[in-house]
Amino acid sequence: MALPTSPSVVVLENDVSVFAPNVDSSVVGVVGFASKGPTNKATLVTSPENLLRIFGEPDTAIPGQGLEGAIEILEATNQMYFVRAANTTAAEASATVKFGASPAFQLSGFTAEQPSSIRYEVFDNAGVFRASSIVDLKASSTTDTTLNTPQKVISAAFSRDAVAGADVISFIDGDSIFLASKYAGSGATMSLSAFDPGSNTTPGDFLGFIPVTVSGNASSVESLAPSDVSNVTTNGFTASSDLSLNVYSIYPGAGYNLRTKNDGSVKGLSVEVNNLGILDKIVVNNDGSQVESFDVNAQPSSLQYVESIIFEDSANDYKNSQSDYIYAGVDQDDDTSAEDFLPNDFGAKLAATGVAFAGQDSASTNPGAPKGVGITPRFVKLVESTESFVDGNSGFGTIEDPDTGADITALIGTSTDKTGIHALDDDVLNISLAVAPGFSDDAVQNELINLGETSKNFFALVAPPYALGEVQDAVDWINGRGARTASLNNSYAAVYWPWVQVFNPFAGKEEWYDPSIFAARQCVFTDSVNDPWFAPAGFRRGRLTKPTDTEIRLNQGDRDALYVNNINPIANDVQTGIAVFGQKTTQRLPTALDRVNVRRLMIFIRKVLLQLGKPFQFEPNDAFTWEQVEDVIKPFLADLIARRGIVEGAVKCDSTTNTPLRVDRNELWCSVTIKPTKAAETVVFEVNLTSQSASIS
User: Fold this and answer.
1) How does pLDDT run across 46-91, given as a tens digit for each residue?
2) How far apart are CA 442 and CA 465, in angstroms?
3) pTM for the full model?
4) Given Cys at both, which of 97, 174, 177, 414 links 245, Cβ 3.0 to 4.6 Å?
5) Neighbours of 678 (CB within 10 A)
């Protein structure tokens, strides 16, 4: 700012309070199979309940322990991304709800000047009596003098008598008048009789009823003479395979199929249609409980039109409008069927669906094209029913034994499409730990580890197969010897063994769990009580409280043999309990990065530096900016020293790091040097016996 030209006191403000951002090191990525939920997408879950709602319960039919592991880890963190792997065979489950037509009549021979009465009786598709009433049709019944047409008189009469929205609906179009019951389906009936005004016994002499049938061509139905109109009845129908509402689960998976478990509980999705009336109610049940309910009808002009609620909206590239579970579409076969024989002017098309009613051209000439004068076919109803979702495929492939390596392509995925494990490759997610519980195949584990190293974003935790054998078998496994091998050597991964026994509430019994699950859980716990550069091991931060036993019990010699081969033992001591008793990475070269705490420290530092460096992009590459960079990094290093992450730290950003050649390449270089804090893995007490004094100098 410009200073005053006259003597004065000026206060300038210069904000140099830049501080390192807080980077969450406890975000876990879990890859596995599930019975339902989004596929090949890293989905944020914040609690075990949230996980189960989205992906379903663990099931013995589901390979691996992705869900089981995710539940255990979620007890220690609320930041987890679950990737449900699925191969190309994954398919959505579906259910079909039938459409039915209400019993209906076409009225003829009526004039506005000729009053009469109509008696009706309505029965639903179960044969249950619903309503009976008499409606007076006369223009003098209303003060509205504009009711001078048959259509307006009948419409006003049914509306006035509160039946249009209750038990009978009037349909009016041009010179035709239709009446239809609100009840639909095979067995639903409506009876009509016409009488002179004020009489329920003397037939009227003005009116003919044409029952609208669906069993044959409507043109063959003769208009009934006035003397024959008493107790004329027409039946509704169920369009069994010709016209239906096809409902699909949003995500592929067998879990969307309705199934009953041994305990009698119902698992999976079902769709239910009930409360038949002007508005039908579509209910979605998940695991036997209602999760959604939508009031719908077949009126395209209505906000409750079924298309507006759950129909597929392909134009906007999403599968449903309101539901979190289903989307739908109307299907009609090209064969000549019941709905093809409704009168031309009884409806031409269910708008925006491509479904044509009677009056359509033949399938051979112009399928689905309406002809004649069409009306909104509000008489079409969904038939009351409950349908199970079937034919879903979870895309498990042929995986039976995780050690066989059979069809693991779904779990691995591809980097191009970001599927399977590669769905974790996203900087925005900030994942710092990753597991694929229950899968010990070397191809799966190497893909997970290599992705962590390539992205430099996360640390992978893995384990040898279950029932591997003895200690030597585990040593052979990690060194690439034997039938089931890994041959691991990478600082972005750690191996834990043996497997641990945990009570599985979904199976109702103790089961063997992948130890990488609990290694990840202890990393998260460590972050909560200390920082990621503290070793997630020992009795302070490595004690496992839920496991009740280990696959084998390791003595000191066993632990020594494992540790020298970069396998972190799960110790089971009768006095001290079960605990993670090692923190080696799989890196064989003896450097600081052969320890878990240092590797996790470096992942943390990298993520912080990425954030600290962004404000300096496109700034002048000169000494002033270099000094600013140093001023930002120094406090960060001081904080790491104070929090016991490093012993020493230094930063240099000047002309020695930024040579003319680098500046010409538009590069700013900053050298950061740290000495990481080592963990005291072995504690030695030296006891000296003396016959002199007990002082130590």
Assistant:
1) 999 999 988 888 887 788 999 999 999 999 999 999 999 988 778 8
2) 10
3) 0.76
4) 97
5) 12
